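Practice problem: MmgE/PrpD family protein
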Amino acid sequence: MSPPSADQAATSSTEVSDPSGVTGKLCTWIHDTTTDNIPAEVLERAKYLILDGIACGLVAAHLPWSETAARGVFGMEPKGQCTVIGYGGKKLSPIAAAVLNSTFIQGFELDDYHSLAPLHSCALLLPALFAAAEATSTATQTFTGKDFLRAFVVGCEIGPRVGLALHGADLLTRGWHSGSVQGPSATAAAVSSLLGLCPAHIESALGMACTQAGGLMSAQFGSMAKRMQHGFASRNGLFAALIAKEGYTGIEQVYEVPYGGFLGCFAQGANYEPKALPNELVSGLGERWELHGVRVKLHAAMAALHGTIDCITNLQKEHVDLFKAENLNNIESITTQHSRPAFEHGGWTAPADKPLSSLAAQMSIQYVAAAQLVDHQVLMAQFGADKLNRPILRDIMAKTTPTHNAEFDKDKKTGWVNIATVRFKDGTEVTNRTESPRGIEPPASNEDVVTKWRMLVQDVLEVERREEIEKCVLGMDCLDDVRQLVKLLEGTVKCPITV
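Answer key — structure tokens:
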């Protein structure tokens, strides 16, 4: 018999290429982590985050841009074995289902985000894990709710750590869609955990996931693509783990390899020295749980805009008469102050002669300030076609000037500070400073999550189905087969806004 080729030898090992490197340590931790290693409060919080992600997917499944995506994908992909949320039992391949379901979860800017290393964990992890469970379950092997929770927590740990190794929000400042860059790693890690891959296969999965990473933040200026970019990351990480499971090899030591490595490439142009922090990938693994940094949104807009909304809300509460509807025409100017990532992400000026799309509005400091002033809320209704381009909103937007305050760039805590100053034509001027938006510090409670879930789905789901899903998710650790939950998500849902 001939000796094995280099490729054959590579696929036969179960160990990582360098156990002492950051990639090797990460792979070993992913492999070794069991449900018993994860604190009970982390597992409990994970269930509420999953409920929030499912709410976001269901409520956005039939938004106009979601339906456009669905038509395109159904038209190009054959029938498969994996559920598309809210589409009456339609199924696609695992790769295609992951893209669509992620696009739905990201469909209304209502989904979770990490407070220090921006990404949307549920939009990455839930679609890939649901697809992996449906695609690989057999008559003799299924995945329990505990298996799913463990894998979800693992993904919630890896994605933010990849971001922290690149100085958190710095990717956004440089124009990268940070979640799309960090996301393939999170998804590959989570699916690898669910499938029980060996360390060598996990290393290959991460290596193939990282070589597919990318995403341009210019997608936020009105294109539908922004809502699908986490879907690309979910798909790519899922694909990487599924093919690594078969022994297909990926880049070894992908995070630290000098030439063409993940950190080496994505750290180019960083605004910090050193440009990358490799040890952030493994620092405190199993002791400091990044899942605690996942935040639940209480406004239907990009997270960096929430501080502006809260500043305006506080001014409305403190100066009720000043901000009555009949006095809004007397506003002379509004000036807002932000950290650099928030300013670069949301501080762009909307062209006065171009109608806003829902996506552009959800990325605009000018728009959310105006919507809060006029409607006293920034939720789904504010982004319906009948709301977006009202003359009073466009007038207030034209008077609103976002600015960058370099003092807010000093550390991670001040990065969430927002200041809003409103000046009236009679010279009256009022200011509010918000240290951190609602839902950041303190985070939204589990009770807040349930309230949000019920509010979001009340008009798209019948009560009995809502209660079944809620019971299933919050009791996930007792599920014998996670496909019981997926089955509850397949029925058709309604569109929640006027289009």
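Discussion: Residues 435 and 441 are 9 Å apart (CA to CA). Students who identified this feature from the tokens alone can consider the problem solved.
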